[in-house]
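Appendix B, Record 12. Input sequence as logged:
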Amino acid sequence: MKAQALNSDLKVELMEIGSMMHKKKLPNSFIAAAVETAFEFEGVYDLMKMWSTETDKKEQDEIVADIQDLVDDCAQKEKIDGTYIRFDDLEGIAKNIRSFKDNLRLVIDQHGGLSHLAQLTGIPQPSLSRLFGSASMPRRNTLLKIAKALNLSQVQIATEWLR
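Logged structural output:
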C-alpha cells in the first residue's frame, strides 16, 4: 500500500534505521533500496521499524528477507537490462524447482558461496538463505540478479538443469 507523504521526522527515523542496518553490515544497496522504498510504501516502513526493535537475530534476518521481498515487489516498474530468462523457461523451472535450486546452489558454491553472492548482488544473505531453503519459485528479478552477478547466460540459469 502506498504511504502518505512522510513527514521529516519519519524520514529521519528511516535514515537512522538505515544507519543501524549499515552497522549490522547489511549491503548498502539493500539499505538504500529499503529506505527509498519505505519513503513511499508503508509496509516497508513498518518492517524497518520492526527490524529496529527486534532483538532476536533470527527474527531480524526474517524481517530483512521480508523487506527484500517487498522492495522487489515495489520495484517491478523498473526496466531490467542484461540476462534474459524466457517466460516459457520459468514453467520448466517451477516443475523442477528443488533440482533447479540444488544445482544453482552448487554453481553459487563454486563461485564463492552465499556470502560472496550477497556481496555481488546486494541481496541480503538472509534473503538468499530463504530462497534456497524454501520450495517456492524464485522471483524472476532475483534470478536475473544472480545470473548477472555470476555471469551466467539465460541457457545456464534457466534450461541447463531441467534435463
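Residues 158-163 have pLDDT under 50 and may be disordered.
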